[in-house]
Amino acid sequence: EARCAILRKEMGNREYAEMTEDITRSSTRGQGLRMSDFTRELGFGTHVLTLMFACFMGGLVAGRAIAPDSQSIPIIVGMIGGFIAMMVEALLFMLREGKT
Q1: pLDDT in tens, 66-93
Q2: DSSP conformational letter for 71
Q3: pLDDT at 100 (0 to 100)
Q4: Exposure of 82 by Cβ count < 10 A (0-12 exposed, 13-18 middle, 19+ buried)?
Q5: What is the Rg, in whole angstroms, of the alpha carbon atoms belonging to the chain?
Q6: What is the pTM of this model?
Q7: Where are the alpha helices (DSSP H) in the chain?
C-alpha cells in the first residue's frame, strides 16, 4: 500500500512536470537575461526614440509650412507626428512579438 502511494505520487509529479514544461522551461535554466536580448531591446528603444524625433521634426517643418506666423501650430503638428510614430511602432512591435 505504502509503495503504491509513493509510486502514484511520483507518477503524478512526472505528469505535472510534463504539463508545465513549456511554462517553467525558462525559469529552470537559471540563465537570467541574455546580453543579446538586452541589446535587442535597447536597439528597439533607440529606434523608437529616433523615429519619434524624426517625425516630430518633420511635423515641425510641416507646421511651419501650414502656419508660418504661428509658434504653437508647428509644435502641435510635430507632437502629433511623434505620437503617430510611437503608435505605429507599438503596433508593429505587438504584431512581431505575437508571431514568436
Answers
A1: 999 999 999 999 999 999 999 999 999 8
A2: S
A3: 64
A4: buried
A5: 26
A6: 0.60
A7: 2-19, 21-29, 35-66, 72-99
